[in-house]
Each structure stands twice: as C-alpha cells, then as structure tokens.
C-alpha cells in the first residue's frame, strides 16, 4: 500500500517574474463591443490579469466618451467590483460610445487603460419604419420567402449610418451584394407575440460609397416554419405573414440627419433563388428563378414590443471538410464528416441548367450501413438545388440541420468530396471551458458533450437540432445548465431565454414545457424538473455569474411557480398534479422478469423538486432583502420535507420506489434528516452494484447521481458508472463511435439496430455528467456567487493518471490539473484568478486558502 511520506510542500511554482497588472476581456452588458444595446442599465465588466499572487482590485476608474467627448468619469472608486459595474450616467439612444477602464491593485500596481466600444439602440419613439411583406392569410400555410430591395443615394458625405433591422421570420440583408454582419437567424427566437428583438449594424462604410442597392431576404424561420412535431399542417406558427422592418439612421458630416425606412417605396418579390426554406424540411435554392418585383405591401404593425437584442446571435463557428465519401449497400452516394454537427452544407456544383440536385441529412447509418433518416420523423431535412448551368455555389443558410452524413442525389458523375463542406453554426457566445484526462474514452465523452452543447444552443437551448422538434424544452435546459456554464459563456444567452420564460408563464404560475411556447398555452405547464427551471436556472445562473440582477428580474416568476405548486399540493404533498414526464427516459428493461426496471414514482420526483424550488426562493428572498418571504418559504420547506418523509420514507430509511433516482433526488434536495442520509447513499451505491454498475436513471436522476455518490464518499462507484462500457452507460455510445450525446441510453442497441421513433443522436441532457467531471472529478466548485471564492477539491479514481480542466469565470480563468497514482493525488497545479480566493485540497491532506496566482503542490509517494 502506498503511504504518504512527505507532508511537506515540495513544489511551489511561483511565476511572479515580470508581474504586471493587465485589464482584459472588457464586456458591455455582458457582450464584446456590442451594437445597438439598450441604453438603460448598461454595465461594464473586465478581468484583471497578473502573475503576482494574492492580487485584488483595490480601485477602478472608468471614463465614458460619446463621439470622442467625455460624458462621464467615475473618478477613482475604491471597490473590488469588476463584474457588471453600472454606468453612472443616463445614456442617449442611437449613439456610439467608448469606455476606458484602469485599475489599481492591493500591491500598488496600476494597469494601463484599456478601451472598448458599444452603441445604443433606437428610442422606442423613434421608429418610423413600416412593416413590409406578404401574408398568406392562413396560419396553416407556410409563407414563402420574400425578397425586398431599395436603391439609396446619399445626399452628402456620410459620417455615420446605422441600420436597425428586424423581421417576422428570419432576415439577412446586403448592400451592393455584400452581406451585412455575420449573424444568422436574426432577429432570434423570442415570444414573438410579446417581444421581437432587433439588431443594429453599422453601415457607414458601404453606404458612403455612393448609390447603393439595399436588398433583404426574409424566410420563415421560427416565426413561420411551423414548429412542433406532427404533420406539417398541424404545426404551430406565430403568423401567416413574413415581414421586414428596417430603419437606417444617417448622419452627414455637418450634422444633417436622414432616416431611410422600409415602406411602400420599397420593392418586394415573392420569387427569387431561395424558393422555400423552413427549419424542419430544409431549403430549396433555384438559380434559374427570376425575381418578380412589385411595390412592397405595408402590413399591419405588431402588438409585440421591439427590443434590442441582448444575447450573441447565431454565427458560423467553423467549416469542416468531409473525411470520406462512399456508396452504401443500397447504392446511395454518401459523404461522412466524421462528426455529428449542426449547421448546413456548402456545395460547389457544375451541371446542366435546371438540373436538380438533392442533399439529404442524417446523423447515423443503419445496421447495414445505409443512410438512416427515420429518426428525423416528419422533418424532411433536405436541400434542393436547381442548377444555373454554370459552376454554382449553394449554401442553404436559411435553415439548419443536425447531421454527420450527407446523401447526394441528382449528380451526374462522381461525387467529389472536395466540392462539399459542412458549415457549423451556433449561438456566438465564447467557449470558456476545456477538459482533458488520461483516458481517451472520457476525452471523447467530453468532446461529445461539447458538440451536443454547441449544436443545441442555437439562439435558444433546444432538446435536439435535427428532427421535427428543436424546441426549448425547459427540463433539458435545467438539467444541462451547469455543464453549459463550465463550457461556454452562456450568461446573456440565458438572460434572453429567461425573459421569454417570464413572458410565457401563465396566470396560475405554470411554466409551459417548451420556451418559447410554440403550443401557445395548450401544453402541460407543471412538469416537475421541467417547470422548475423557473427557479433552478436563475439560481444557478447567479452562482455561476455572480450577478444578482437575474435573480431580481426572475424573482416574481420564481415565486409564482412555487406558489402554484404549494397551492396545488394537498397538505404539502404534491401528488395532485398529473406529472407527464417524471424521470423521463430512465432505463427500463424489456420483458423485465427480474423486476429491475428503474421506475421512480413521478409524485416522489415532484415532491423533491418542489422542495428544491422552494429552497431556492427562500435563499433568493434572503439575498434580495425580502425577509418575510425568506422566513415564509423556509418554514414551508420544513413542511414539504416532513410530508415527503411521511409519504415516501420508511422509518429505516427505505425511500419508496427504491430506485437510483429516488435516492439521488432525496439526497440531492436534502429531503432526508441527517441520520438517514449516509445509509440512503449506501442503498444507492448498492443499487448501482445490483445493476452490475450500470446507471438506470432518466433525465431527473442522471445529472446528480455521481455528485451524490461523491458527496457521500462513493466516488469509486461514480467512477464505475462513468467508465462502464456496456449499455446503459455514458461510454457505451462512445465505444459505438458516437460523436455527440444520445437521447436514449440505448439509442442504438448492442446488435446495431436503431430504436425507432423518438431517438435523437444529439441530445445534451445525459451530457450533464460534464458538470461532475469539472466539479467533482477535477474538483472546481464555487463557494460563492461568480466563483469569487471557490474550492479545488479533486476526487481522483477510476485509474485516471491525470485530469485537467479550465473554465473562465467572471473574474478570469481557473485552471486545475492533478496527477494521481491510483486514488492518491501526487501533484496538483492550480491557477486562481485575480480577485478570487480558493480553498485548495492539497495532496498532503491540507486545505490551503490561497489568493490569486499559479501554484503547484506535490508529495512524494513510497
Ligand atoms: C424531448 C425531450 C423533452 C421531452 C419531454 C421530448 O420529445 O426531446 O428532450 O424533455 O420530450 O418529455
């Protein structure tokens, strides 16, 4: 047996050489140099970087300029705050600003000033543009894409021109043939009946050049495609119209102003190359089509408020070349990109005029190696290209697909892989996390989690990106939220989505199961674990990003949801609501003669989530200073837990259902009294063993099973689950070549057959194990909001020789790497951002409280 020989600190890497205080990562209202943001509540963030240890910001100084003129100076403010510091002066609409920050630290260092820029949105009163477009008059009929154009001649030397643009549908626009901006699917998906976002683009440079042709295309997108599963005619649409709204504010040298707006003096065409484009069925591009211009029709305005965008738009992230092409046993010509991804293809084709080439999309091949699309259900997911006769380039970017394979029909001659590439697109927020270990299977699992994460964060968090669904399922977002925050900066992304959640919440406090609610209030509004995202996501957002405004903005909604549950419960027992999902997609064996299918009572799940939500509201109330609420919900929580004990737990601590999920939820939500907890964890560990070290949990138990095991000293069992290679497990799909996370534990059976119907190969929910990898295996856990203080408490095991993870918090990058012999950590290297303090569990068993800097600790082992 190994024995720790030396408890002394052997290694203390101190990289103070050349220490300097730098300010980086300037963000305005959470975004990098944003355009057209709401001038109300603008806030500024930055990150301190220095190699000098134990550095804190002691003071900052902010200067704000508008068009080169200083409009605000904060003066030297003694404060350690660097996250979302409010601007101390009212800002004007439609104006460009720059701001500069410099900081002082506790060592007497001063940073160089650093500058960022932003511009503000149009005043709500300043909108003069009219909505122009087409209307089919029937919501069951999908509107066709519509083109718009207008020639503009500047009447002087343009100093600044900004286009404020939105649409009912999705838009893109160009000036003199050049696409403006790099954003896709704008204005983004919101509760269109209430809120439509708009974007701002600086168009000074293209308009300055003289007479310009402004062209726009509006396609159905989420507004008009028809979302929701089922036959297309049954799909839900926001409207039967597609419309554009654009206002360009021009300022000439000398101060004269001009406003160019959409209206009847524009032209529109219902015909053009993009003949058809919906999210589920795909896009048709006909390069033989001629436009048919007519005066634009002015449509009625909308009851929705126009609001400036608050989150990063969808952007192209990377382009991938196919790794091979082949012919399937059925004779299909197929390209393989080696990665299940989300985006669209870009294709170069030379052929006859009028020749039709079709490109279909699939995530997997069937058992025989043929192209498999049954899991797309009713979504046709096909691009149709009509060739011009020359060499054409097609890029169907008015839709998106989830695919690894492309099937090409209609080509004459060979399929040439170099004529194809895949364009990967997702919400354009930054990637902030990285995880790596000595086990290649787990590295592939992390890669699968990451691809599933990015591919399902396409303006809203979706369940899946490929079939006739792609909806903002609340449960999936709730389950995956913490994993997402380790891997990406989803701060503003979720602010936007939570605004929709507030808007969709109904009068009784219920939360529709998909946000935005494409079912318009007709779907379930009380699913435990789904609706609880109303409390869990804001709370976890606060813990991840340290900004109390999200809690404040959501508080009424959080409270309304728990009040609804409390009202609905019978003497604190929430078994009255018919729960639709429960531990959704838990592992159940067919022909279960051994009685081992893991069925957990849905009411039991609901009771645990009710407690969790009420606890969050109590904690939030205390933080926000609502003392009476805090006391009230605290006392309600005690009663909810008592009702749970009375109903579901025997005096000896057997939790009814006796499943993994039952113990996981009871322990995670603190439902059991202290004296029954350890034995419950023991029952959980025994249950895992009984299933041959397999997981049997569904959506509700899976995110927390390893966490609960680790909390109660069973990390060895957690590692057995993590490393299990047979179904059900996380590594089983990896062994079968998965490159994203599957919806079901057995999306593909061991014999290669594919489970029919609802079966996505890119569903991030079970990827929530990613949270445990960062938080427990590597050991990075916040102990106060925004990781201002955090713990580094690795849980080695599973034969891992090393693990390493980094994540960028609001204060900067945390990095941890440990190396181990068996279950014993030999060394640990930690980077702690300036302004934060970490409690590091060192290999010698000591917990050291350390200020910022880079540290390494090691022990010698016999
Ligand atoms: C979705 C899930 C979702 C569920 C609700 C499915 O169709 O794909 O991920 O949470 O329905 O049960």
Share of residues in strands: 25-35%
Q: How large is the count of helical segments?
A: 15
Distance between the termini: 9 Å
Q: Indicate the percent of residues in helices.
A: 10-25%
What small ligands are held by the chains? Answer: beta-D-glucopyranose
Low-confidence stretches: 1-17
Number of strands: 42
Radius of gyration: 28 Å
Helix and strand composition category: alpha+beta
* Mean pLDDT over the residues: 95
Would you kindly provide a written description of the structure presented here, covering whatever features stand out?
The protein is of the alpha+beta class and 862 residues long. 22% of the residues lie in helices and 30% in strands. It has 15 helices and 42 strands. The strands form 9 sheets. Strands 18, 19, 22, 23, 24, 25, 28, 29, 30 and 31 form a 10-stranded mixed sheet that branches. Strands 8, 10, 13, 15, 16 and 21 form a 6-stranded mixed sheet that branches. The longest helix is centred in the C-terminal third of the chain and has 23 residues. The radius of gyration is 28 Å and the shape is globular. The termini are close together. Beta-D-glucopyranose binds next to helix 4.
Please outline what is shown here.
The protein is an alpha+beta fold and 862 residues long. Helix content is 22%, strand content 30%.
Write the layout of secondary structure elements.
Layout lengths: L21 E7 L14 E7 L7 E10 L2 E10 L6 E2 L9 E10 L8 E6 L12 E4 L10 E7 L5 E11 L1 E6 L2 E2 L15 E8 L1 H5 L3 E8 L1 H4 L16 E12 L4 E5 L5 E3 L4 E5 L3 E5 L6 E3 L9 E4 L5 E7 L3 E4 L5 E18 L5 E7 L1 E2 L5 E2 L9 E5 L4 E4 L6 E9 L10 E8 L5 E5 L2 H16 L1 E2 L1 E2 L12 H14 L3 H14 L28 H13 L2 H21 L33 H23 L2 H22 L11 H9 L5 H17 L11 H10 L3 H9 L7 H5 L33 H10 L1 E3 L6 E4 L9 E8 L2 E10 L2 E9 L4 E5 L5 E4 L2 E6 L4
Parallel strand pairs: 13-21, 19-28, 36-40
Antiparallel strand pairs: 1-2, 2-5, 3-4, 3-6, 6-7, 8-15, 9-14, 9-17, 10-13, 10-15, 11-12, 11-14, 15-16, 17-20, 18-19, 22-31, 23-24, 24-29, 24-30, 24-31, 25-28, 25-30, 26-27, 32-37, 33-34, 35-36, 37-38, 38-39, 39-42, 40-41
Helix pairs in contact: 4-6, 4-15, 5-6, 6-7, 6-8, 7-8, 8-9, 8-10, 10-11, 10-12, 12-13, 12-15
Bound molecules: beta-D-glucopyranose (BGC).
